[in-house]
Amino acid sequence: MIAAVPHDVESLRAALPALDWTTDAGRLALLSRDFSWFSPILKAELEGKVADIAVRPRDEAELRQLVGECARRAMPLTPRGAATGNYGQCTPLQGGVLVDMGGLNRVVWQRGGVVRAQAGIRLAELERSLREHGFELRTMPSTFRVATLGGLFAGGFGGVGSITYGPIAAPGNVLGASALPVVPEPVPVELRGADALALHHTWGTTGLLLEVELALAPAQSWIELVVVFDGSFDAALDFGDALAAAPGCPKRNVAALAWPVPRFIAKWEHAFPPGHDAVLAVVAESAEPAVRELAARFGGRVTHRAESIEAQRRNQTILEMCWNHSTLHALKADPGRTYLQCSFTAGKHLAQVRAVHQRFGSPNADARTEAEVLMHVEFIRSLDGPLIATALPLVRYTGEARLQEIIDGYRALGVRVNNPHHKHVEDGRFGGTLPPAAAAAKRRLDPMNLLNPGKLRVWPLPDQPPQG
What is this structure's pTM? Predict the structure, then answer.
């Protein structure tokens, strides 16, 4: 692993004077942060970690020049998209060069239901382009307005659309990608299928993404609905599950928020009456009558309706209340909370959600303090297809030891918890060990371990020292 020593960034800058460099200390501090402050643990661990210099390549040629020079100097590089991730993935642990990928933002081509685009393109811009041709993204995060394609692929999981198409890594969603090896004379490497997915959710540590090729969905006219339930999270869960499973109702998102989570969403009192649990649903216009009938069957009533495209244009879309946007709303209202990332077992998901909600989600006996853990559930399809629930519970943070007790309690009930409070790639999603395919990609595409060194807990592997 590269030692944390000062880097001669001035010689690098002198070698590439035409590039768009940033050396301002305040700007570097801002560029070196993402939403890892959601975690009080990561916030403390990453405090003061900044790049020595930042650069924004305007095209692939400039990026290749930069990577070659950094490799010759053994200088760390950390790629950055829009910094909407939650793990400190764009925070350089050992300084070096922060690479703003926003200049590589073109749609390379679209052919029917497939698109290929550069890693730095913003997802909202990509979707607007696709809808002109009758298509849309299959999945995108709630941060779609600013998030980049490369950031989604390297640091994301799923999001809006996963109720139909599953996570990003579900077979058929990602068709290919190209990456630039971090070597003195870099030449792009094309990766297809499973080889491309070896770079997925490794936070830019195993390869420097250039382009991603995606399968698309036919564009729909989506309607956004808020459905509320009076004092019964069970009813909200049952309705959300029934809607998620309804084969004749196309949908883009189904989320269930237990009260008081809805009250954290500012200026939406018209849609979230006090004491009511809520389901946020984005459904096809053609399915709206059936969805309203289904809601009434479970005792729900619709308090808000909007056309999704218009709601996005007005910055009033419920898509920005789902997924980890719920966490953002909550932390603005109650900075004493943090979150977890959970997934439940197909066929047992409702029982598991109820079990953890009952164990951790009850208000204190004096009724003046809100529950320690507040439930926010997203319904999705799993990697292999069955309907499941995932959750981003909002946790009252009282210390690392208590947080671990809650995690252990969830796991004892059969719930998978991907702990988002680790700075290492392996310890969050992968349970402590880097998958062999990801390790192989690292050896191939970053043999000198220059991509944000320190983010992989154990590297190089004992039996595979890097070559370079």
Answer: 0.93
Other beta carbons within 10 Å of 333: 13
Give me the residue spans of the domains in the chain. Answer: 104-218, 222-418
Q: Is 60 exposed, middle or buried (0-12, 13-18, 19+ CB in 10 A)?
A: middle
Determine the Cα–Cα distance for residues 226 and 255; give it in Å rounded to an integer.
Answer: 10
Rounded distance between C-alpha atoms, residue 173 and residue 190, angstroms? 17
pLDDT tens-place string over residues 327-364: 999 999 999 999 999 999 999 999 999 999 999 986 65
Q: Give the architecture (CATH level 2) of 104-218.
A: 2-Layer Sandwich (3.30)
Report the C-alpha gap between 282 and 293 in whole angstroms.
15
Q: What per-residue confidence (pLDDT) applies to 460?
A: 62
For helices 349-360 and 400-412, angle between their N-to-C axes, nearest 10 degrees: 140
| Rounded distance between C-alpha atoms, residue 84 and residue 424, angstroms | 17
Contact 115, 107 (CB under 8 A): yes
pLDDT, tens digit (0-9, with 9 covering 90-100), for 354-394: 999 999 986 654 445 689 999 999 999 999 999 999 999 99
Tokens of 109: 């081509």
- CATH node for 222-418: 3.40.462.40
